[in-house]
Write a structure and sequence with these properties.
67% helix, extended, mainly alpha
Length: 432
């Protein structure tokens, strides 16, 4: 009977199982994904805590802890409110775009039409899943909300001026509104209008990119999902919000005319008062009409209606608000500027005096003397010797035009010519 010869004892030793490299890499990647954000958040938190602790200690020494807690509560209330509003607005719109595009909301498979085709046949198709898209829009919404919250966090003083600002008891000459409105309330309204405009534009851009991707996918496979009507209705709603906010901005532009720099002085001039105001009212009416067009387009969506509304309003705005007032100022007002701008010059001088509290200055007239004698001149010799020989205002221009040679001479100041004097020693010699 044959016997089996056992192999060497070394070959019977049990080998230890090799670790799975894919499982190890997944654990390491998960650890990195958790540790790095945690370290970043911890560093940010430590920096914020130490900064607030420093401010609190300083306010405590000055007995202003009430002011510290007031600012703290206002800042973080604005941060939280803006973060929540922006996140909900962006996320709802992006999520609605996914629904209209046919992306399922659960864990089901991605529709074949929405999976990008890879040109290389040997490469694997990317794992584009509904969960991945929904997670992407959540992350994108969080980022946009974070940037918006930081912007509002820095505007805490704008809110405090709006909340606690009062009146000055002085009305502006254009609208008759108290100056306190322009100092305390108008900046807050401008902040809200600008923020909503940027938010609407970013949301329209994000939603438009999603719909463009879905449209390209459906065209590639020759499928028709009925997405076009839903996409145009959704975009029409967002455009209606954008142009309604634009109309609100045009209303604020009426009050911003008091800061106009188009005229000869700082503030509203003849063009702003007689032309720009009328144009702005007309643009507000046009914005209402465009909003009505987009509202109708929600029910009866048409792509041409959207394009016509956007391009038409932008073209009229560029012509009526940006171009016509400048041409009117240059070719109508400036040739007869003194006649047109005299009332506004009076307003400018009057309100400048009020701002510097010069309304109660007593004016004294010093008429010129007609009986000037050598004795009076001798008594005021210092004054006589300090009289300027030239008028310094037109002197430099005159020398540049008449005595300067291009590439050879350049006069950079008129002090030498205006107030400079030469001392000449005069000696008397008796004839020999």
């Amino acid at each position: 009977m044959d016997t089996l010869t056992p192999p060497p004892s070394s070959s019977w030793k049990a080998k230890a199982p090799r670790p799975n490299p894919s499982a190890t890499s997944r654990k390491l990647r998960l650890l990195v994904q958790l540790v790095i954000p945690a370290v970043i958040l911890l560093a940010i938190a430590i920096g914020m805590i130490t900064g607030y602790l420093e401010k609190w200690l300083w306010m405590e020494q000055l007995k202003y802890t009430g002011i510290f807690w007031k600012l703290f509560s206002v800042q973080w209330t604005m941060y939280a409110a803006s973060f929540a509003c922006v996140f909900v607005f962006v996320w709802l719109n992006l999520r609605h775009a996914l629904v209209v595009g046919g992306v399922p909301g659960g864990h089901g498979p991605m529709p074949r039409a929405l999976i990008p085709r890879i040109s290389n046949a040997d490469s694997l198709e990317p794992e584009l899943t509904p969960d991945l898209l929904h997670s992407a829009i959540v992350i994108g919404s969080l980022l946009i909300a974070w940037f918006a919250a930081n912007a509002f966090f820095a505007q805490w003083d704008t809110w405090l001026r709006f909340r606690y600002g009062g009146a000055f008891g002085v009305a502006d000459p254009l609208y008759g509104i108290d100056v306190g409105f322009y100092v305390f309330h108008l900046p807050f309204y401008q902040m809200l209008q600008t923020s909503l405009a940027l938010l609407s534009i970013l949301t329209i851009a994000g939603v438009g990119l999603l719909y463009s991707y879905f449209k390209a996918a459906s065209l590639r496979l020759g499928t028709h999902t009925g997405m076009d009507r839903g996409a145009m209705s959704h975009l029409s709603v967002l455009l209606c919000i954008l142009f309604a906010n634009w109309g609100f901005g045009l209303l604020l532009d009426h009050y911003r005319l008091v800061y106009s720099t188009m005229g000869v002085v700082y503030g509203a001039g003849y063009t702003a008062d007689h032309l720009t105001r009328v144009v702005l009212w007309g643009m507000m009416a046009l914005s209402v009409a465009v909003c009505a067009l987009f509202a109708f387009n929600v029910v009866h969506p048409r792509f041409r209606s959207m394009i016509a509304g956007v391009v038409g309003f932008a073209g009229v705005y560029a012509l009526a608000v940006l171009l016509i007032p400048n041409l009117f100022q240059k070719f109508i007002v400036e040739p007869s500027e003194l006649a047109f701008e005299t009332p506004y010059l009076r307003h400018y001088i009057d309100y400048t005096r009020r701002a510097y509290d010069l309304t109660n200055v007593q004016e004294t007239s010093y008429p010129a003397l007609t009986d000037l004698t050598p004795a009076v001149i001798a008594r005021n010799q210092d004054t006589i010797e300090n009289i300027r020989l030239w008028d310094v205002r037109p002197l430099l221009k005159m020398y540049q035009q008449t005595q300067a040679i291009r590439l050879y001479y350049q006069f950079y100041g008129s002090s030498l010519f205006g107030v400079g004097r030469l001392l000449v020693q005069v000696e008397h010699h008796e004839p020999g």
